[in-house]
Write a structure and sequence with these properties.
Length: about 270
């Protein structure tokens, strides 16, 4: 058997965009109109701020701008995690979660490291504060889900051979299990230059594909963690799903959904 994504989709595509500037409005709309989902990592201390030519999304706009997407944290004030004292870092992350949860009415458990900077202590603190995943800025060019979601290295920044990666993802080799293409950046990179062509071309190419699950960072994180939590009989032919999510497997005889709490035979004895 092999794990597959919900409804038997073979692969997942997700986006991660940081800092919450006003250009997020256009990007979030572009993804939404193509049936895609992304995650927007916000600094709650910057909401509604006007700073030179930087305009940040207002708190009262979040629900509308990011409808259908995930809102995640990025630190209250975008301070460098590895410069702060432990107590400052704790506040920077905990207070960001609290504010964003209050505004959205949802749990906010995703993150990206400000400036992409982190060390072991940053990871420990984030994990202890209930953060389930955090994205780095280290492009891997690959499609493997991370070993540790608190160090989720993306596939590529949108300026780093995006269309080449898109072709590789479309033709991905069969040995990949639960592959994910993870694209990251900042919407102001399109907004300031006025050139949205790279992301528009990518969205056009990747939309409406039957074998792709379009999901937020958190949806993918939760699904992969659920797959990893599955329990099996000693002969590997019976699977028990102890999680609260349905998990899908592809077997010799077809596609199987194992619901929350269910136990099913997944092979012939
Ligand atoms: Zn940032």
């Amino acid at each position: 058997m092999r794990f597959v994504y919900p409804e038997g989709k073979r692969k997942a595509l997700t986006f991660s965009y940081d800092d919450g500037q006003s250009f997020d409005r256009r990007l979030a709309g572009l993804l939404r109109s193509a049936g895609m989902k992304g995650t927007f990592h916000l600094n709650s201390g910057n909401l509604g701020l006007l700073r030179g030519d930087e305009v940040f999304i207002r708190a009262d706009e979040l629900a509308e701008v990011y409808a259908g997407h995930e809102i995640a944290c990025h630190g209250v004030q975008h301070r460098n995690p590895t410069t702060l004292s432990r107590q400052q870092l704790l506040l920077e992350l905990q207070e960001d979660r609290k504010t964003l949860e209050k505004i959205t009415g949802h749990l906010v458990q995703g993150m990206s490291y400000a400036f992409g900077n982190y060390d072991d202590e940053t990871v420990r603190i984030a994990r202890s504060l209930g953060i389930l995943y955090s994205r780095t800025t280290r492009d891997t060019g690959s499609f493997f889900p991370p070993a540790d979601f608190l160090e989720w290295h993306p596939t590529c920044h949108h300026d780093n051979e995006l269309m080449k990666r898109a072709d590789e993802f479309i033709d991905i080799a069969g040995f990949y299990e639960l592959p994910v293409m993870y694209v990251w950046g900042h919407s102001f990179e399109f907004g300031r230059s006025g050139d949205w062509s790279v992301i528009e071309a990518f969205v056009e190419k990747m939309q409406g594909r039957e074998d792709i699950w379009y999901a937020t960072n958190m949806e993918i994180c939760r699904y992969v963690l659920a797959a990893r939590a599955q329990e099996f009989s000693a002969d590997g032919l019976t699977m028990h799903n102890p999680t609260a999510l349905s998990v899908w497997v592809s077997t010799g005889t077809g596609l199987l959904e194992i619901g929350p709490g269910e136990t099913k035979d997944i092979g012939e004895r």
